[in-house]
């Protein structure tokens, strides 16, 4: 049985939920470990056949620790079967929900020395009630500008779980 690791960077937990969904879909065929980007020093990547990384966007950027991880492990990432997916609310829009069209995936590929074998883009979630006051107001303004939901009493999930399932199928073939 192949051995894989999923490493995630999440802001509000949706990326971790997507990773857990992938594990449920894959665990019958792949032995999978899950680690937060905060735990990367505990991981020996060379023992894995597949390396999957998922990262969220907040205020237009991936977590800087993601790029430090890539820089530190670039040689192993180039030698293994790898996948990367980004989670962002922009991906809720048609025409911005594929690796070829999502601005954050394009930016990631420009900034990163790593070119994964498989790419995915998933829409995230806005959970206004869980945000601190300042984040709530900034995200509400961004949503107003981009014609998204602005009701700060609500929670809005945009993740297309069928797309995540399709990605899990692609992981098995990669």
Question: What labels would you give this structure?
Answer:
2 domains, globular, alpha/beta, five-stranded parallel beta sheet, Rossmann fold, 5 helices, single chain, 7 strands
List the helices and strands and how they pair.
Elements: E1 2-9, H1 14-26, E2 30-36, E3 50-56, H2 64-79, E4 81-87, H3 103-111, E5 118-122, E6 125-127, H4 133-145, E7 155-157, H5 161-173
Parallel strand pairs: 1-2, 1-3, 3-4, 4-5
Antiparallel strand pairs: 6-7
Low-confidence stretches: none
Number of helices: 5
User: Helix content range of the residues, please?
Assistant: 25-40%
CATH superfamily of the largest domain: Flavodoxin domain
Name given to the CATH architecture of the largest domain: 3-Layer(aba) Sandwich
Largest beta sheet: what is the strand line-up? 2-1-3-4-5
Strand and helix order: EHEEHEHEEHEH
Tell me, what's the shape? Answer: globular
Cα end-to-end separation: 14 Å
Question: Could you say what the CATH topology of the largest domain is called?
Answer: Rossmann fold
Number of domain units = 2
């Amino acid at each position: 049985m192949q051995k894989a690791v999923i490493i995630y960077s999440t802001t509000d937990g949706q990326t971790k939920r997507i990773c857990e969904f992938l594990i449920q879909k894959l665990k019958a065929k792949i032995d999978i470990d899950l680690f937060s980007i905060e735990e990367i020093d505990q991981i020996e990547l060379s023992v894995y056949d597949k390396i999957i990384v998922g990262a969220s966007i907040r205020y237009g950027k991936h977590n800087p620790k993601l790029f430090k991880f890539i820089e530190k492990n670039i040689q192993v990432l180039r030698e293994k079967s790898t996948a990367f997916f980004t989670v962002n609310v922009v991906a809720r829009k048609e025409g911005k929900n594929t690796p070829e069209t999502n601005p954050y995936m394009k930016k990631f590929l420009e900034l990163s020395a790593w070119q994964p074998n498989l790419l995915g883009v998933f829409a995230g979630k806005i959970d206004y009630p869980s945000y601190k006051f300042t984040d709530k107001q900034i995200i509400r303004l961004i949503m107003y500008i981009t014609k998204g939901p602005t009701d700060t009493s609500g929670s809005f999930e945009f993740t297309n779980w069928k797309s995540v399932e399709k990605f899990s199928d692609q992981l098995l073939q990669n």
